Amino acid sequence: MARRLEGAPFATEIRERVAADVATYTNEQGHAPGLAVVVCGRSAPSMVYLQRILKACADVGIVGTLVDVEGDDVATQEAALTAAIHQLNEDPTVAGIIVQMPLPQGVRLRAVVDAIDPMKDIDGIHPLNAGLLRLGYEGFVPATAHAGLEMIHRSGVELKGADAVVIGRSPVVGMPLAFMLTKEDATVTVCHSKTRDLAAKVRQADIVVVAAGQPGLVTGAMLKPGAVVIDVGINVVDGKIVGDVDLPSAEQVAGAITPVPGGVGPLTNALLLSHLMRAAQRQQHAKEHFEA
Ligand code: NAP
């Protein structure tokens, strides 16, 4: 039976560390670090996720602010979003900016993403941060991908030379994870909706990351015995949250597995807070350097 990799204990550890850093920063700077959550259209399902982030901020002493942007049509929405982001870029009390996704239909993702100051892009969506990751340099990476990697580390599996399969190639989960695993010397295969014989690819993997948004995509019969399985998927089936992995069959074969809910999700949230704190510290250093 696979060991379950629960996210909550790791998340608590990270939050405690962030809370201590926030207290030091607040003491030194005279104000707490701020996170701005930019939203356009409050009805999106991601509102629940964003409210959870704001609550998590409050718990560790970060000032989380919801910046509500309005517009009557696509053009005014896009203009209002980019204007709000430019204003937040200039605000020294705001260390990090995240934007509610998906954007309203028709608003260009690239226009909004490009507006974010890369130093405040704590979820690693700006092309500069994506490029830094691609080249193996330090920048901000998407919190979900970071959480997936952290879970792999905490499983204890040796990454060097390991065969890893990442299912999903999105810029927020699959691709960043593939780059991070490659940097740590795993041999990575990226699979997607056009991949032929997914089962054959998965069967040779020591590490399987699933981020496809397809419930039951990976089953125990597809896995190599002892594999580490990281389920990033979040799906609602019959009113219940499930991942992309068929947990009952997979845990009979895997060596370690993240459950959904309770695996990658809680860690994502905690890591986003740690990114915010890192952004605040970097901006503080940059300011001191500039003033010196
Ligand atoms: P996405 O942008 O929709 O990307 C899904 C990827 O999966 C695409 O690359 C797609 O291939 C691939 N795919 C879809 N069906 C497939 C199939 N049958 N076989 C193989 N590959 C398939 O989604 P995302 O934003 O990366 O999110 C992925 C999942 O993670 C979702 O369930 C999402 O809710 C969840 N998520 C979780 C967290 C968390 O904190 N745990 C955070 C963000 C997202 P193509 O490229 O060919 O279309």
What does the secondary structure layout of this molecule look like, with pairings?
Elements: E1 3-4, H1 8-29, E2 34-39, H2 46-60, E3 63-68, H3 74-90, E4 94-99, H4 109-115, H5 127-135, H6 143-155, E5 163-167, H7 174-183, E6 187-191, H8 198-203, E7 207-210, E8 228-231, E9 235-237, E10 240-242, H9 247-250, E11 256-257, H10 264-291
Parallel strand pairs: 1-11, 2-3, 2-4, 5-6, 5-7, 7-8, 8-11
Antiparallel strand pairs: 9-10
Helix pairs in contact: 1-10, 6-7, 6-10
The structure holds NADP nicotinamide-adenine-dinucleotide phosphate.
Residues 144, 167-170, 172-174, 191-195, 198, 211-214, 217, 232-235, 264-265, 268 line the site of NADP nicotinamide-adenine-dinucleotide phosphate (NAP).
Give me a quick take on this structure.
The chain has 10 helices and 11 strands. The chain is α/β, with parallel strands linked by helices. The radius of gyration is 20 Å and the shape is globular.
Tags for this entry?
292 residues; alpha/beta; 6-stranded parallel sheet; 3-stranded parallel sheet; 10 helices; 11 strands; 16% strand; globular; binds NADP nicotinamide-adenine-dinucleotide phosphate
